[in-house]
Amino acid sequence: TDLAHIRNFSIVAHIDHGKSTLADRLIQETGTVQDRDMKEQLLDSMDIERERGITIKANTVRIDYTADNGEKYVLNLIDTPGHVDFAYEVSRSMRAVEGSLLVVDSTQGVEAQTLANVYQAIDADHEIVPVLNKIDLPASDCDRVAEQIEDVIGIDATDAIQVSAKTGQGIHETLEAIVQKLPAPQGNLDAPLKAMLVDSWYDAYLGVIVLVRIMDGTLKKGMRVKFMSNGTLHHVDRVGVFRPAMQMVDSLGPGEIGFLTASIKQVRDTRVGDTITNDRNGTDKALPGFKPAQPVVFCGLFPVDSAEFEDLRDAIEKLALNDASFSYEMETSAALGFGFRCGFLGLLHLEVIRDRIEREYDIELITTAPSVIYHVFMKDGEMIELHNPADMPDLSKVDHLEEPRIKATILVPDEYLGDVLKLCQDRRGIQMDLTYAGQRAMVVYDLPLNEVVFDFYDRLKSVTKGYASFDYQMTGYREDALVKMSILVNDEPVDALSTMVHRDRAEMRGRAMCEKLKDLIPRHMFKIPIQAAIGGKVIARETLSALRKDVTAKCYGGDATRKRKLLDKQKAGKKKMRQFGKVDIPQEAFISALKMD
Ligand code: GDP
Ligand code: MG
């Protein structure tokens, strides 16, 4: 296809504003999929997405469209992930297209993810077409939302298209706007191949499938290509496009979006943002901005049953094959035995992987406290990246610590603003901006990532009854007075419960943790002291009193079934516990103890 008849775009939206529904409508309206094959949420229901769960990064579909001017166009839609954990992937897929549809639910208005995603689109120099969705609903208020788009985002919304992705109203206008308003891609057919690796995933039949955007040159079946980040060479055995099912083609030219397969075994070998060129006489200028995915949140994963360690290793290795952004290394804990220290892009990513190990591989896990990467500056000038509080070096050798910070953007209805400010303040936040748009406030905070990774989002949802939206970006490292707090149960340090805390909050945090643990750890036949300590100094203490000799004594007399039930219940509880010295600590203690209310 000649460049003038190609349009490449993505759809940016806050979750639930109708991105998938709109994509389905565009596909349906253009007859890309026969009506009888049309399923709800076509893009979402593709097998690859189901298989990949929430880690799905981008789905693509190529649509043929004959415009009102009689010309035939090829429209390539790249569907980007909506979650903050995958900001880098979003930024890469944005670079693969020239324009965006900005979908805003006209009954709701602009939300935090709308902003985060549209800023990515603006960064990528996109032409942006605002689309006001859900106009079929009585609560729809297009004027107000258009005004809000202008006020908050600063783009012209006078020509915003009014759409109901549900009824199909405005879909034709949307297709025309894509053709008329979005720029055609540019590229040089005669130059060496230069393609961006937009995404990749594993397919059981075809091996790794690599989604590419061709910038210059031609990608052909049968050629040898080089991945520039690591210099690896691959023989291209298939080239194709998604409609949305795979369709093989002989070649892809400048401006086109499609896929290749090349007998690549591991997704790990394909890096999002990488440049693909010819094996010989290729380009020597890689596309700018490539960086390998960097895990930011770390935690330990240990099997509840230590006999399942090898199964866990197997599960983790399999999952890692298909997820280049997930890292792991073996870890031994005095308390938990053998396990793995794993790195994730964010908390959602952590939860997805943990759930998959538990569900798909049927291994019960103990997850230790999530931690960010601290920079520990030693007195001798060395800098150590600390991924695990348990590895904190001897304080006498440490000069100072730095922690990662984020810029958080929160949109919230006025009435909850006070609670949100308090929450951010409690988490050591520094207010950077506060503006109003309609009845809502937009607050921008500089926060330590550590204070956010744990339960910040849950707390935010609960204090705002779900009305706040939230998004963040990493900004860099800053020094602060951070210390390692250890927890001792029955005088034994439980390394898996160690956390890094701010010195000023250590005592409060320590007290809260000891109280929580007192509730979470079942009583034993003996008294159990629970202590929080910094260095050798105990800063908080609780005592779990001893159990009366016979647990069944409270069943008064001879009700045998009740007695058995109680014993069974104890046994079931046991399964999920681990022994620390002489004390059984239940699995949920490792996470719950850290939640701050
Ligand atoms: P996404 O999270 O942005 O992909 O949003 P979805 O496309 O999954 O839509 C979220 C919800 O809004 C679904 O229940 C859709 O059926 C509904 N929805 C999407 N577009 C419209 C619309 O134009 N009108 C109405 N009434 N509902 C819509
Ligand atoms: Mg969706």
UniProtKB/TrEMBL annotation:
EC annotation from Swiss-Prot or TrEMBL: 3.6.5.n1
Top-level EC class as recorded in UniProt: hydrolase
GO cellular component, one term: plasma membrane
Similarity-based family: Belongs to the TRAFAC class translation factor GTPase superfamily. Classic translation factor GTPase family. LepA subfamily. Belongs to the GTP-binding elongation factor family. LepA subfamily.
Protein name per UniProt: Elongation factor 4
Localization terms from the record: Cell membrane
Binding site for GTP: D16, H17, G18, K19, S20, T21, N133, K134, I135, D136
Protein's organism: Ruegeria profundi
Domain Tr-type G: 4-186
SMART domains: EFG_C
Entry annotated with the keyword Lipoprotein: no
GO annotation (BP), single: positive regulation of translation
Entries under InterPro entries matching the protein: EF-4, EFG_III/V, EFG_V-like, EFTu-like_2, G_TR_CS, LepA_C_sf, LepA_CTD, LepA_IV
Membrane protein topology class: Peripheral membrane protein
GO MF annotation terms: GTP binding; GTPase activity; guanosine tetraphosphate binding; ribosome binding; translation elongation factor activity
